[in-house]
Amino acid sequence: MTVRSIVRVATDVGGTFTDMAFVEVSEDGSQVFKTAKTDTTPPNFEKGVLHVLQRGGVDIKQVGFLAHGTTVVINALTERKGAITGLITTQGFRDVLEIARGNRPDFFNLKYKKPAPFVPRFLRREIPGRITYRGEERTPLDLTGLSKILDDFRQENVTAIAVCLLHSYTDSKHEKEVVNAIKEYWPEVSVVASHQINREWREYERTNTTVFSAYVQPIAESYLSGLEEAIEKDGFAGNLYVMQSNCGVDNLSQSKRIPITMVESGPASGVLAAAELGKAIGVPNIIALDIGGTTAKCSLIENSEVKIVSDYWIEKTPVSSGYPVMVPVVDIVEIGNGGGSIAWVDEFDKLHVGPQSAGAMPGPAAYGKGGVDATTTDANLILNRINPDYFCGGEINADVKAAENAIRGISDQLGLKANEAARGIIRIANNNMTNALKLVSLNRGYDPRDFTLVAFGGGGGLHAVALASELGIKNVIIPNGAAVFSAWGMIMSDLRRDIFVTKLVELEQDSADILNKLLSTIESEAVKQFEEEGVKSQQVQFRYLAKMRYQNQEHSVEVDITDRPLTSQSIVQLEQDFHNVYEREYTYQLKTPVEIVGMHVVVTADIGKLEITKMNPGKHDVRLKQKGKRMVDYAQEGIHEAAIYDGALLKAGTQFAGPAIIEDAGSTTVIHPDNEVKIDEYGNIHINLGENSNG
User: pTM value?
Assistant: First the structure.
């Protein structure tokens, strides 16, 4: 009898579902990959985690590695459910949050209003003291008024304090003194300082990020502590990691201390999973698309590298400038279009889909939980793209009548037949997602035809081919275990931290020494920090990027540093690389001096990441895998009789052509007419669009 042990488990809490992926390893080293899914349980998200562990039959006592992704941070921000927060800043700078940036999404909107700061003015206080941009003390720190400020905060029921002093990215000694004084005077209050989060310039962005981290810190710490306590009570004795927005995991204590790094925890793991999949199958250039129940998220991966940015904004819309978050975040575009997105008709009889979502409760009308609004899922069901007899893997009896009534509510308003309204919902949802895909490709100088679309999430397979066709993409991949692919990404993750340091250096041949010294200092500090946490120096790896610009410009682009240590020759190459990157993003080059404004160092440590295992090839007679046939409405391509395949039975090497539908427990993949399908050695579905693509 083969004994199996569960070595790695990942749970991903989404807006609608909580997903789990785990790997069992036998004595002979063979791996079995398994998944499970359950409803998300707000506000007690940890209950959903425990439920999905139970559903998957995971004995937590056997688990050595547990990675967790959560939406608790972004939910607290968007729903304004964080702590009452006070801000302490340098004298003269209490209004930085109010002044913000002059950026306006629409300069001709005369009714535009800046987003309201998360900290009202009466809770923003100043203290004397000044550090210059060179890191020199111009005015000594004066803490004589701090006790009065803290007493006032107590009276206003403040439970979290953000400390952000001018130019503390160059020297944090003043901030440290303030933090120590607060903790001594008021030990119970939560305190977050800017130097703990980021060492980059830009006072508004840095201040807002510090405020955000303080705002969510109490709720994030409570949530993570509750999760830790719950699983330890059940016997968990392994290592608990939390997925970060930078496509890596970090330990629990670091995540509690700086929770804002989890702002896009779930989406990051899906993009990482797509990159790791691409490495395994030899596809380096990928557009990753995650279609869940609430949102659709996409990101571009070039040469197997996920792009990380530190100028991320939340709640940015055509009429709002949003709020900056200056932490490393995977470069994604997210829109409110998913399986639960609600279709609605405006006062001009125009049909819309999203951004409102039916969520998990009541969910789409087809769930039979009381939902009455028509959603994308209901439209897919009515068009026979989703099997009502295998709805959610057969775990839910599809309420077809409720779905029909919901769609009819839309069709009656538009004067259409129900199936025509359902087609319209699908086409509008597809159009919304196509625009998002253009934002990460065409709008940034990339031709989507040079990339492969990797689509996952519960709705990825339903829409992927239509989206790829619109963009001229020839190849689509639906990963094995697509419904929980983001959770799988956490299993494949490394321990990762991104270090940003501001340093203005004119790019000259003799600047190599300055940069080498700076990078060596960063390396030493990173290795020391990891060693204190039990990570050996041999496990630590570095990647270096320079933040560069033409002299006197405002913003920079990141350029890879491939040579280490730097030499005069590599400086010349670095400058040329900058020109190429700049031209790709902005379509032109300048004949002006180039300067470095800072460094971005990616520090990773391998903590036992598993290798992807191949499937055993099976018989290639696809007739044995067919569940039957049914008429499917392909919207733009009309109605066709489609062969229905059981995704669980498709083995490596299996090939067939569309029209077809592939069904598995967590997702449905729509194969359009004339598409060619092949199952690769890892169980992924490869779809070649051929002439169906607009490219």
Answer: 0.85
